[in-house]
C-alpha cells in the first residue's frame, strides 16, 4: 500500500500540553496499548457547524445508530441555559439563508429554536458611500403585492441556534452519543496495531483532557473512524491532518453591537416587511451593515480598520450611536472627520454632545439619500465588541479519516453574511455523504466515501469566499477614480443582471 | 479529484511465488490470471490506484442487489427463528472476491449485535468470500483488520475469507441440504477471467455457482460484453497508458468477454445442469420460477458509475439469475 494513508496523518499536540510529553515518543500517557474507545464519528468543536452535523446525523434513520462523540472546550451547559428577555439580544447574530433554514427544518432543529427571537427580512438596500450607486434587493418586481415577499434571510442569534441544536440533539436520546463538554483535545495521534484485535495504526486516536471540574468518567483516549474538525479557524484537527490553508488577515475588524431603532420613517408594505441596509465606506475600510432584529431592534456589523474599530469601541453610547447614524448618512469626508474627533479624557457631558451635535449640524448640509435606515436611538449595554476579519481556505476538506467543516475549512469576509451558511452547507453535504456511505457498506472514514463531500463543497465555498473577497477589495479603493466609477457601473449592472443579483441575494445555494 | 493513476503491471515474477491456489479438484483457475492479479495486490486498496474503477463501482453493486431482493426475496429458511421485526438473515458467498472490495463492504452492513432492530438494504447476515489468488486473500484479511467492526465479524464467524476455488466449495457442499445453501452468490468481474478450454468454461463455472445457491436465491454478477464498443473502451482506451487508461494493461482479454444473450443462455443451461441428479437429468422444469435481470452500467469520468438500463451491450453490465423454488 502506498504510504499515503499514514503520512497524511501527523500527531497534533495542543501547545499547552506539549511540555508534559515524554520526549521522543509517539504517544504519552500510561496505558498506550490499552485499546481506545472506538467511535464512528468524533466531532471536535461544538459551535454551529459541529452541533449541526451531530443533529443531522441523529435525525437520519441511516446514521442515527452510529456511535458519535463531540468534544467542546467551552461549557455547553451555559449554552443550554442561555436566556435573554425579548428586549435584549446577543451581539453575535448571523443571517441564515433560506437554504440553511430549510436544512435546519429538515433535521428537525428549527422547531427547537426560539423563533420569536429570529427576524426575517425581505428587502436589502446596498449602496456605495462614495458614488451613491445603489442596488436594491427586493422581490416586489416579481411578486404580486398580495403575496408575501420571499425571505432574503433570517437573522438569528448564534446562541439561539446553538441552544436549539443542543436541544434537538438531546431530543434524539442518549444512546450511542457522548458529549464531552468542558473538555479539550490535548493530542491527536495515530493508533496502534493490536495483534489480537483490530489494526488501528491508521486511525486517529484523541487524548482528552477535562478542563477543571469536568465529568469524572472521561475516557482518556478515543479512536475515530471519522474525525470531523468543526473546531474553528485554528482547527487542531486540520493541523493533525496536515492540511495546508491559504489565507490572509484583512487588517480589519468587524464591530458588532445590538441597537434599538426609532420608529421606521415609512410604513413598509406589505406590513411587517423588514429591510437590511449595507453601505460601503471605501475610505473607512469596509461596509457598515444594519440588520433587523425583532421588536424594532437591529444588529450592527461594521467592517473597518483596526484603528477605527478601537475608536468606535472607546466612544460613549451616545457618541457611538451618532457615529452609526452618521455612517449611513454623511459623506465620506464628513465621516472621516468625525472618526478623528477628539475624545475628552474624562467623560465630560458636553463631549457626548460633540458627536451628536456634529451629526445634527452636518445632516442639515447633506442631501438625504432616498432610502436610509431608521435612526438608531439606543445601544444595548456591553454589546459593542469587535472581531478580526480574516480569510482562510483549506486546500482540501478531507484526508484519510478526517473531514473539515465550517470555519475549520474556510473563513471569509462577513460582508455578505455567509460564513455560518457555508458551514451549514458543509454539514448538509457531509451528513448526506455519510448516509450514502453507510447505506452502501462503505467505510465513512475512507477517502472514497469522503471525496464526494469535498467535490461538492470546495468549489462552491471558494466561489462565494472569492466574491466576498473581491467585493471587499473593490470597495476599499477610496475617492472618485476609475475604480469607483467602475464600481458604480458594477452595482448598477448587478442590479440589472438577474443572475448576479440572484447569486448575491440567494447567496448561492450551490 | 478523479485523477486516475494506474500503476504499470510490474513485479509479476516476484509475486509469482505467492500463488499457491488449492488444486485438489479440477479447477477453473487460469495461471495467467493469477499472476496478473497478484501483481495488483499491493495497490488493491489504494483509492487512487489501479483498482479505483472497481472501488467506484462497488456502491452500485449494493443498489443492484437491493433491486433483486425487492423483486423477489429468498423465503425464510424453515430453520430460521420467528422474529417480529425484519432482520438481516441472508447468507452470501462472494466468488473471486479479490482484495475484498465487495466482501468487506457487505460485511460492514452486518449488524454487530444480533438484536439490533434495523435491517439493511442487502439484508446480509453472513458472508463467505473466496479467491484462488492467495496474495489477494492475504491483502483482504489484512485490510479487514483495519476496521474494528469488520474485524469483529472475522472473529465471530459472520465474515470468512477462504483461499480456495469454487470447485472446493461445491465439493464441501455435496451433503448440504438445498435449504441450507447460500441465499446470494456474487460474481463481480470474474466471469471474463475464466478460461474456456477442455477443463474449464464459463458455463461450467456458472453451473457451479448455481449449485451452491439455494432455491429462491439469486446469483448476481457483473461482467463486460464482447462488443465493438466494449472492445474500444476496455481494450484500447481503458488500458491505454496513463493518463487516459483507467485499468492496468493486461487486465482484460477481450475474447473472454461475455455478452448478455450468451450469459442468459448459459444461465438457463446452468440451471438445468446444476439440478441434474445422479441418475436423472433435469429438464425444462428446472427453469420454473427462474428470473433474469440485466442492467448496463457506464463509467463517466469525473462522475463515476451510473446504472444505465439498455446499455448492457455497450460494455459493463450487472446481471442476476434467480433460481426457482
Ligand atoms: C463579525 C462577524 C460577523 C459575522 N456575521 C455572520 C453572518 O451574518 N452570517 C453568517 O453566516 N456568518 C457570520 N459570521 C461567521 C460565523 O460567525 C462563523 O462562520 C461561525 O460561527 C463558524 O461556526 P463554526 O462552528 O464553524 O466555528 P466556531 O463557532 O468557531 O466553533 C468552533 C468550536 O470549536 C471549539 N474548539 C476549538 N478547539 C478545540 C479543542 N482543541 N478541543 C475542543 N473544542 C475546541 C471552540 O471552543 C468552538 O466552540 C460572522 C463572523 C464575524 C467575525
Ligand atoms: C477483477 S477481479 C474482481 C475482484 C472482486 N470481485 C471485485 O470486484 O472487487 C477478478 C478476481 O477473480 C479471481 N479469479 C480469476 N479466475 C477465477 C476463477 N476461476 N475462480 C474464482 N476466482 C477467479 C481473481 O483472483 C481476481 O481476484
Automatic annotation (TrEMBL), chain A:
<keyword id="KW-0830">Ubiquinone</keyword>
<keyword id="KW-0503">Monooxygenase</keyword>
<dbReference type="InterPro" id="IPR036188">
    <property type="entry name" value="FAD/NAD-bd_sf"/>
</dbReference>
<keyword id="KW-0285">Flavoprotein</keyword>
<protein>
    <recommendedName>
        <fullName>Ubiquinone biosynthesis monooxygenase COQ6, mitochondrial</fullName>
        <ecNumber>1.14.15.45</ecNumber>
        <ecNumber>1.14.15.46</ecNumber>
    </recommendedName>
</protein>
<dbReference type="InterPro" id="IPR010971">
    <property type="entry name" value="UbiH/COQ6"/>
</dbReference>
<comment type="pathway">
    <text>Cofactor biosynthesis; ubiquinone biosynthesis.</text>
</comment>
<feature type="domain" description="FAD-binding">
    <location>
        <begin position="39"/>
        <end position="462"/>
    </location>
</feature>
<dbReference type="InterPro" id="IPR018168">
    <property type="entry name" value="Ubi_Hdrlase_CS"/>
</dbReference>
<keyword id="KW-0560">Oxidoreductase</keyword>
<keyword id="KW-0472">Membrane</keyword>
<keyword id="KW-0496">Mitochondrion</keyword>
<comment type="function">
    <text>FAD-dependent monooxygenase required for two non-consecutive steps during ubiquinone biosynthesis. Required for the C5-ring hydroxylation during ubiquinone biosynthesis by catalyzing the hydroxylation of 4-hydroxy-3-(all-trans-polyprenyl)benzoic acid to 3,4-dihydroxy-5-(all-trans-polyprenyl)benzoic acid. Also acts downstream of coq4, for the C1-hydroxylation during ubiquinone biosynthesis by catalyzing the hydroxylation of 2-methoxy-6-(all-trans-polyprenyl)phenol to 2-methoxy-6-(all-trans-polyprenyl)benzene-1,4-diol.</text>
</comment>
<dbReference type="GO" id="GO:0106364">
    <property type="term" value="F:4-hydroxy-3-all-trans-polyprenylbenzoate oxygenase activity"/>
</dbReference>
<dbReference type="Pfam" id="PF01494">
    <property type="entry name" value="FAD_binding_3"/>
</dbReference>
<comment type="similarity">
    <text>Belongs to the UbiH/COQ6 family.</text>
</comment>
<keyword id="KW-0274">FAD</keyword>
<dbReference type="GO" id="GO:0071949">
    <property type="term" value="F:FAD binding"/>
</dbReference>
<keyword id="KW-0999">Mitochondrion inner membrane</keyword>
<dbReference type="GO" id="GO:0031314">
    <property type="term" value="C:extrinsic component of mitochondrial inner membrane"/>
</dbReference>
<dbReference type="GO" id="GO:0120538">
    <property type="term" value="F:2-methoxy-6-polyprenolphenol 4-hydroxylase activity"/>
</dbReference>
<dbReference type="InterPro" id="IPR002938">
    <property type="entry name" value="FAD-bd"/>
</dbReference>
TrEMBL record, chain B:
<protein>
    <recommendedName>
        <fullName>Ubiquinone biosynthesis O-methyltransferase, mitochondrial</fullName>
        <ecNumber>2.1.1.64</ecNumber>
        <ecNumber>2.1.1.-</ecNumber>
        <ecNumber>2.1.1.114</ecNumber>
    </recommendedName>
</protein>
<keyword id="KW-0949">S-adenosyl-L-methionine</keyword>
<dbReference type="InterPro" id="IPR010233">
    <property type="entry name" value="UbiG_MeTrfase"/>
</dbReference>
<dbReference type="GO" id="GO:0061542">
    <property type="term" value="F:3-demethylubiquinol 3-O-methyltransferase activity"/>
</dbReference>
<feature type="binding site">
    <location>
        <position position="96"/>
    </location>
    <ligand>
        <name>S-adenosyl-L-methionine</name>
    </ligand>
</feature>
<feature type="binding site">
    <location>
        <position position="192"/>
    </location>
    <ligand>
        <name>Mg(2+)</name>
    </ligand>
</feature>
<feature type="binding site">
    <location>
        <position position="189"/>
    </location>
    <ligand>
        <name>Mg(2+)</name>
    </ligand>
</feature>
<keyword id="KW-0496">Mitochondrion</keyword>
<comment type="function">
    <text>O-methyltransferase required for two non-consecutive steps during ubiquinone biosynthesis. Catalyzes the 2 O-methylation of 3,4-dihydroxy-5-(all-trans-polyprenyl)benzoic acid into 4-hydroxy-3-methoxy-5-(all-trans-polyprenyl)benzoic acid. Also catalyzes the last step of ubiquinone biosynthesis by mediating methylation of 3-demethylubiquinone into ubiquinone. Also able to mediate the methylation of 3-demethylubiquinol into ubiquinol.</text>
</comment>
<keyword id="KW-0479">Metal-binding</keyword>
<comment type="subunit">
    <text>Component of a multi-subunit COQ enzyme complex, composed of at least COQ3, COQ4, COQ5, COQ6, COQ7 and COQ9.</text>
</comment>
<dbReference type="GO" id="GO:0046872">
    <property type="term" value="F:metal ion binding"/>
</dbReference>
<dbReference type="Pfam" id="PF13489">
    <property type="entry name" value="Methyltransf_23"/>
</dbReference>
<comment type="pathway">
    <text>Cofactor biosynthesis; ubiquinone biosynthesis.</text>
</comment>
<feature type="binding site">
    <location>
        <position position="131"/>
    </location>
    <ligand>
        <name>S-adenosyl-L-methionine</name>
    </ligand>
</feature>
<keyword id="KW-0808">Transferase</keyword>
<dbReference type="GO" id="GO:0010420">
    <property type="term" value="F:polyprenyldihydroxybenzoate methyltransferase activity"/>
</dbReference>
<keyword id="KW-0489">Methyltransferase</keyword>
<feature type="binding site">
    <location>
        <position position="188"/>
    </location>
    <ligand>
        <name>S-adenosyl-L-methionine</name>
    </ligand>
</feature>
<feature type="binding site">
    <location>
        <position position="193"/>
    </location>
    <ligand>
        <name>Mg(2+)</name>
    </ligand>
</feature>
<keyword id="KW-0472">Membrane</keyword>
<dbReference type="InterPro" id="IPR029063">
    <property type="entry name" value="SAM-dependent_MTases_sf"/>
</dbReference>
